[in-house]
Every structure is written in C-alpha cells, then in structure tokens.
C-alpha cells in the first residue's frame, strides 16, 4: 500500500510531521518510509550529545537545517558536575560544518562552547539564522562579535543564563549597518555595558524585531527610547528597573509601554524601584508571561501589578509575593498555566516572608488551567499536597522544593509520602516530578505504581533502601531521566534493573551507595551504556571495589565511550578497545 | 538480552504492590546459553559486590565490606550513626532464600544506619534529624537548594547593593563560586570560597585540587590563619614555584594574601595559579594597593 504513493506525496505528508517522536515512529514503518523520512527530516534533537556520534547523524539525515544538542547532566546547574566534565560542542561543530553547509539553526544547552566554535559557526553556514545558547559557557564576547559580524542572515541571538567571559561590550557594535533581519535578541545574562547608541540604531533598523531582552546595564531612563523605536515588540526584558523618581521619566516610560500593542511578555526588572512598576499597567492586560523573579519588591507592590494581568499564563516571581499575593492571583489570573516561585533568601533557616504551602493551595484551587509548578517554600503538609492534587489533576509538571532537606509534614511530623503519593495518583498526566521533604520508600512505591507517564524524576535526601529505587525503575514505564542525590540507594536495585537503563536517556546518582564494583559490572555487561564514575578523590585505583562512588552518570549510547574525559571521570567496564566504530 | 530466570528479587510480604521483575531482562545468574552470564567469576548474585553464596564466607567478609564503605575522606561518613535504631542490612545469599524469607533482602537488622546523613561539605554543621536547622548560620549542602548559579549570583549582588551587611558572609547568597585556572592545566575548576575560613585552608584545598597537574611544588607552609600577611610571608604562602593570584572587583590581578581574609572574599572574582617568575612583578604593586586601602 505504502509503495503505491509516489514519493512526492509521501514527502508532502511527512512535512506535516513536526515532532521528532512522530518522525521516529514513521521511520520504522518500512524501509521505503525510513528512506523517505530521513531525506526530509529538517530538525534534529539530541538529548545527550554523547549518545550518538555526529557522523552517524549526518549520514542518516543529510538535509537537516536545525540541530539541537544538550550536554551536561541537569544537576550541573547546581554545581554537582565539576568543571571539565565534558559537553564540548567543538567536535560537533566541525562535523556539521562539513556535513550541513546550509544549516540554519543551532540550539545548545549546558554545553561548553568556545570562541573558536562560534567563529566556525559564523563562517561555515552561509544561511545561518538562529543561535540559542542555554546555560552554556566557555566563550567570550569576542565569539559573540564573530557571530554578529559574519552572520548576514541572523534572526535570533538568544543567550539564556550563559557564563560569558566579558572582554567588552563592543560585540554589539559589530552588527553591520546593512544588517536588518534581527527578530530576537536576548542578552540578559551579560554583565558588561554595550554602546547604547549602537543598540538604538540596531533596534531602529530591525523592523522584524519581536524579542528584545536587555541586560542590567541599560538604565531605566533609556527604555522609553528603545520602546518607541520598537513598538511592535512582543517580548521585552528591561534592564535595571530603578531610577530617581522623576515624573517626566515616569510618564515617558508609561507612554512608551502603552504604545506597545503587541506586548505579551515582560521580564528583567532587576533592582526595582516600586514607584516605577505601575508604568507597565497599560500592558498588564495584554501580558501572557511575566517574570518578576529579580524584582526584590514587597508583596503589595507586586500584587497590585500582577493582579491586573488577567490574561497571564506564566508567572515567575519571588516569594515576596507571599500567600496573600498568590491568593489574589488565584482570583485574578484565571488563565494561569505555569507558576514559578523562587526563594528570595534560600540560605537562611527562617524566612522573613509569609509564603507557605497555602499560597500554592490557593492557586491550585483558583486557576483551573494550572499545569506546571515550580515552588520553593519552607513548609509543606500532606493535606496541602492532597488538596493540590485533587484540585489540579491536570498537572503535568510538579516541582516542589522544601528548603530544608528531609523536612516532614509540619503539622503531623510524618513523612510526605502520602502527599506526593496523592499527586502521582491523581495527576495522571504528570510527566515531570521533583520531590523534597521527608520521604520513605513508601513514596517510591506509590510512584512506581501510579506514575506511568512520568518522564523525569528528581529525588534528593529521600528513601530508606534499595527498594525505593527498585520501585521507580521497575514501575515507571515512561521514565527517561532520573536524577538522584544523597539517597541510600545502592547496587542491588541498579543491577537488577540494568536493562531499564537502556530504555532511559540517563541516570544520575550522587552521594548514594553505588559501589565501584557495581559500576564496573554494569559497564561490562551493558555495552549500550556508558557508566561514568565521577570521583575526585585521590588514589582511586587503590580504593576497594565495594566503596561507594561519589557520583555516577549512566546513559545509553551508540557511539561507545568518549575520549574527552578529565582525570576524575572513569568510564567503567570498557577497555580502550571497547569502542564502537561506526564510521 | 537473554531472558533471565524468574526469581523473587525482593521477597517482601504480599502487601507490597511490587511488580515481578520477570519481564525485564535483568542481570542475574541463570543457565541460559548466553555465555557472558555463565562465567562464575562475573556471576551476579543479589548482594554486595564481593559477596559470595557461601554464607560462611559472607560472615567473615561482611564486616570488613561494610567498614570499607567508610573509606574516602570526602564522603563525610563520619556522620553515620551506628547506634541508631531502624538499621538495615543487605542480606544476600542464594535465590532460594530470597523466595522463602518473608522480609527477604531488606530485612531490617544491624550494621548500616538508617540515619545516614547526606554528604555535606566539610566544615559545615549537621542537619538535624527532624529537619530543624540550627537557629543561626544554616548548614549548607552543595547544590542545595537547587537554584542555578546565575540566579544565586544575581541575588547575592542584589542584597549587597541594598546595603545588607551579611554577618559572616552567610546571610546573602550562601556560596561564592569562583573559577580557578592554572597555567598549563587542561581545564579550570570552580571552588566555593565561603567554605574556607582562612588562607591556609584555601591554599591546602587548591593544592589538593591541582596536585595532579603539578609535582606538588606549591606548599602551604607558614600560614597559621593570619588574616593579613606581611611582605616576607608572601613568599611562604606561595612556595617556591607556584604563585596564587586573584582578580579583584576592579579587574586588577593581585597576589593572594595581601589583604585580610574577609576583604579578600569580598573582592575576589577569580583565581589563577601561575608560575612564580610571571608573578614577581605583582608583589610591589599589590602591596601599594593594600597600603592605599588602609
């Protein structure tokens, strides 16, 4: 049947398939579909840069226009992965420069990107359009200058929380005068000052500019100038939002904002002077996304603003919002889909802010579309968790961080097993879960039994024994990413569920009880896995095999072991010749 | 993967809703034709590595095996309480035992503590059992709470701008990560300056961290926790070959040890270990700056 369709028709049909999952499914239907699909796949996503060799990718998919790669494990965000571990994008850039000269988009997350890489990108792809670097490091403003100067068709330059070596702010001035295609510029993570006049001229000659996220050094007084040049902006990030209170500055800012009829997203707001917040009031009703997580203002000022954003879908805010603010949100922001509350002072035992589990309960009650939660707080109870789960069975992402490790239900002093159990039982579409507080093996039993759609699970300071880990590995059918720290999980559960690891992207375990011997065994028995022991102690070779490793990172791969490891990483169970040569 | 023998991995009581692990092909000892799994030496049994099916052997081996868990200075297992209640042990042995024993492998017995505390950075206080922290300076665990560095650094900068003077540097931002590079080393490291209390500790830690790259020529002798150092002591700090320098808030490179520790923590943005000869020129200048400050 499939063969009776001419290729052009099939290709046309396939062009409507955008998700990688769908395309992967299509490609295994039969040989001809495999062939058809591989020739017309335009976007590739590689969730772990060490799982596949770039040559394999290029050989199979010759017409790719967009590549997305992720490098370091997620816990690298919290300094658990030492420097030099890996995630170097250079070898990938070399290969794709050769294999995809017409590549248009590169998206990288948690990778080490050098200036050399950026220069290579800027010179190798004639039609390069989109560069998104999330949580990347290793490059300087010189590398940015190369991109900006050489990529004539650049549309998007998006730097999200990168660590950039800031040699100067001159990079921005390297955009040629003839360059007018900019659609999105996010420089919020940069610390150095850019030339404002260069910025203004750039904005003025970019009629398609939709996203502009400034860095802290752009003063409030200059915002109105930029907004007037770009009233078509959809996504705007301010710089430091503070200035002496002057009526003329305020009114020109308020006017400038009111001229932005398409504005949907606001962010930035470092060092807020509360008196200037109301300048955004005219656009509040337009906003679907608001990030005030750097605004160290108190609840009343925050609430006044957020309460006017009745079309808000995404809110990121500090715990200064307090329970009262969240209660207002639960009444005013009925379209809320995602809530993120960060702690203003995570390293003190007692909070000055009145943010408790109650705030989250209110929002779960009042906001019927709430799907995604990231919430930092200092107390939680089983009953609150049960309420939340019953109010919002449509939750897909639930990440709760109770700041004190192993904090019990503050009312009953019991573990929070039942509460989280209720979350996984009621929220059947839950794909991501991060837990905290006092948790025993029981919670893992609930998770293994109910969390059938869970894709990613993060566990810290929880559990009693290997049984906990076993429940998760044997029960969670959809689990692909598991990250564990400081839990008493050891060899047994890991080895007994070894084959599960090949059906997952990766497993991270640090400060647990997994021994060197078990890692070696796993690496020997499972050729499809790299078992990386990350251990910075001296004299590792003389430590007995039954000693627990500091950290282990296990991931499936078809490209064999990697050779860019630092001295504190060992790929266990594979000798030098244990490489799969697929060239 | 070969299909393993079906056996009770965890022979718990029926109340457990545990799925049998029979569908998944696990690593287990079986007599399938797959040669890899038949090698006695690499045969897996449920138990700690080094565990044998002979219970007599286990009895003699078990003690030292568990003790060995305590090795490794960095693990902080000195926190482990061996006296507490609710301890558990991994009871291995033959598969038939597993099938029979009601509590099976995870019987709560002696040896390992239920109360094992998380690995914490040295120098930090313990977290209490029921989760209540000591009232003053909070015990800090690496990477907890899980907040990205970018946010942590930004918030720390915020609070110092607002003029909050943190007592003992623990109030605003619990850690201060700076990059440490060493000439000739293939990659740099990051350290949290706030876990050290004086130059001696810092020096020792750096020495350890970079010992794999040097012949151990940097010595930390001569520093006994003094806050500021005189000119004659600078040489002691840096030893014969390596010189420790730092970039301060103004972007200048200074010799480490010039200023009181607290002042150093406040102004240090990154560290660099250089060969002595390159840094000689720094010494007079850094003393100048120090004098100007005072």
Present the secondary structure layout.
The complex is a heterodimer of chains A (583) and B (294).
Chain A: H1 7-14, H2 20-27, H3 31-40, E1 43-46, H4 54-60, E2 66-70, H5 90-99, E3 105-109, H6 115-124, E4 130-134, E5 137-140, H7 141-150, E6 156-160, E7 163-165, E8 184-186, H8 196-204, E9 211-213, H9 223-229, E10 235-237, H10 247-258, E11 265-267, H11 281-284, E12 289-292, H12 299-306, E13 314-318, H13 322-332, E14 338-342, H14 357-366, E15 372-377, H15 382-391, E16 397-402, H16 417-426, E17 432-434, H17 441-450, E18 456-460, H18 466-475, E19 481-485, H19 491-496, H20 498-501, E20 506-510, H21 516-525, E21 529-534, E22 551-556, E23 569-571
Parallel strand pairs in A: 1-2, 2-3, 3-4, 4-6, 5-7, 6-8, 8-9, 9-10, 10-11, 11-12, 12-13, 13-14, 14-15, 15-16, 16-17, 17-18, 18-19, 19-20
Antiparallel strand pairs in A: 20-22, 21-22, 21-23
Helix pairs in contact in A: 1-3, 4-5, 5-6, 6-7, 9-10, 12-13, 13-14, 14-15, 15-16, 16-17, 17-18
Chain B: H1 55-67, H2 95-100, H3 149-161, E1 177-182, E2 189-192, H4 199-210, H5 231-238, E3 242-247, E4 253-255, H6 261-267, E5 270-275, H7 276-279, H8 282-293
Parallel strand pairs in B: 1-5
Antiparallel strand pairs in B: 1-2, 3-4, 3-5
């Amino acid at each position: 049947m499939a063969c009776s369709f001419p290729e052009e028709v099939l290709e046309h049909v396939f062009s409507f398939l955008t998700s990688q999952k769908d395309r992967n499914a299509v490609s295994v239907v039969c040989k001809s579909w495999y062939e058809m699909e591989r020739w017309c796949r335009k976007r590739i996503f590689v969730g772990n840069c060490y799982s596949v060799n770039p040559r394999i990718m290029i050989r199979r998919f010759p017409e790719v226009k967009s590549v997305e790669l992720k490098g370091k494990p997620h816990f690298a965000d919290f300094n658990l992965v030492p420097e030099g571990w890996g995630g170097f994008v250079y070898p990938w850039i070399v290969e794709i420069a050769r294999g995809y000269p017409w590549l248009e988009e590169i998206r990288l997350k948690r990778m080490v990107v050098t200036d050399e890489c950026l220069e290579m990108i800027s010179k190798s792809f004639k039609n390069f359009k989109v560069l998104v670097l999330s949580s990347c490091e290793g490059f300087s403003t010189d590398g940015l200058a190369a991109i900006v100067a050489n990529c004539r068709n650049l549309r998007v330059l998006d730097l999200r929380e990168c660590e950039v070596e800031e040699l100067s702010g001159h990079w921005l001035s390297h955009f040629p005068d003839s360059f007018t295609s900019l659609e999105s510029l996010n420089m919020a993570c940069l610390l150095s000052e850019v030339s404002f006049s260069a910025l203004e001229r750039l904005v003025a000659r970019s009629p398609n500019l939709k996203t502009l996220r400034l860095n802290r050094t752009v003063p409030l007084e200059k915002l109105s100038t930029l907004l007037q040049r770009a009233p078509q902006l959809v996504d705007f990030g301010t710089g430091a939002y503070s200035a002496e209170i002057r009526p003329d500055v305020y009114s020109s800012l308020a006017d400038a904002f009111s001229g932005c009829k398409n504005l949907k997203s606001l962010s930035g707001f470092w060092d807020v002077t509360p008196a200037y917040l109301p300048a955004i009031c005219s656009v509040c009703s337009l906003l679907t996304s608001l990030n005030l997580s750097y605004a160290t203002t108190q609840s009343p000022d925050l609430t006044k603003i957020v309460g006017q954003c009745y079309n808000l879908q995404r809110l990121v805010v500090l715990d200064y919002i307090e329970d009262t603010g969240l209660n207002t949100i639960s009444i005013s922001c009925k379209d809320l889909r995602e809530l993120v509350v960060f702690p203003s002072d995570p390293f003190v035992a007692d909070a000055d802010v009145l943010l408790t589990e109650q705030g989250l309960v209110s929002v779960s009650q009042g906001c019927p579309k709430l799907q995604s939660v990231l919430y930092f707080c200092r107390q939680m109870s089983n009953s609150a968790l049960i309420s939340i789960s019953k109010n919002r069975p449509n939750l897909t992402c639930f990440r709760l961080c109770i700041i004190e490790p192993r904090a019990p239900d503050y009312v009953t002093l019991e573990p929070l097993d039942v509460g989280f159990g209720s979350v996984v039982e009621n929220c059947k579409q839950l794909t991501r879960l991060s837990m905290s507080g006092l948790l025993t093996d029981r919670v893992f039993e609930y998770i293994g039994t109910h969390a059938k759609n869970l894709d990613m699970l993060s566990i810290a300071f929880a559990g009693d024994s290997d049984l906990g880990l076993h429940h998760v590995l044997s029960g969670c059918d959809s689990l692909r990413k598991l990250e564990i720290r400081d839990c008493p999980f050891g060899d047994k559960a890991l080895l007994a569920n070894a084959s599960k690891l090949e059906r997952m992207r990766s497993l991270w375990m640090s400060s647990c009880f997994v021994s060197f011997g078990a890692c070696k065994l796993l690496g020997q028995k499972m050729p499809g896995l790299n078992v990386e022991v990350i251990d910075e102690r001296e004299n590792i070779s003389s430590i007995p095999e039954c000693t627990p490793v500091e950290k282990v990172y296990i991931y499936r791969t078809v490209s064999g072991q990697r050779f860019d490891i630092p001295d504190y990483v060992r790929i266990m169970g594979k000798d030098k010749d244990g490489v799969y040569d697929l060239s | 993967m070969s299909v393993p023998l079906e056996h009770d991995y965890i022979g718990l009581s029926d109340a457990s809703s545990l799925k049998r692990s029979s569908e998944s092909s696990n690593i287990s000892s079986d007599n399938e034709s797959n040669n890899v799994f038949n090698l006695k030496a690499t045969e897996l049994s449920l138990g700690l590595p080094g565990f044998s099916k002979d219970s007599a052997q286990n009895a003699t081996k078990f003690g030292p095996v568990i003790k060995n868990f305590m090795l490794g200075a960095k693990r902080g297992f000195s926190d482990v309480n061996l006296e507490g209640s609710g301890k558990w042990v991994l009871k291995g042995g033959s598969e038939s035992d597993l099938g029979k024993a009601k509590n099976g492998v995870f019987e709560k017995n002696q040896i390992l503590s239920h109360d094992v505390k998380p690995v914490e950075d040295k120098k930090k206080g313990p977290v209490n059992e029921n989760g209540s922290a000591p009232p003053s300076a909070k015990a800090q665990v690496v990477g907890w709470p899980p907040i990205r560095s970018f946010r942590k650094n930004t918030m720390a900068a915020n609070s110092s701008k607002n003029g909050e003077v943190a007592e003992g540097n623990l109030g605003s931002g619990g850690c201060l990560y700076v990059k440490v590079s060493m000439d000739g080393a293939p990659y740099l490291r990051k350290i949290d300056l706030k876990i050290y209390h004086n130059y001696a500790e810092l020096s020792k830690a750096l020495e350890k961290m970079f010992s794999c790259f040097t012949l151990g020529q940097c010595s930390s002798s001569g520093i006994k926790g003094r806050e500021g150092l005189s000119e004659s002591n600078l040489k002691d700090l840096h030893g014969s070959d390596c010189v420790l320098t730092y970039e301060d808030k103004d972007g200048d490179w200074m010799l480490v040890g010039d200023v009181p520790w607290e002042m150093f923590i406040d102004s240090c943005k990154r560290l660099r270990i250089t060969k002595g000869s390159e840094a000689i020129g720094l010494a007079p200048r850094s003393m100048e700056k120090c004098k100007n400050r005072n």
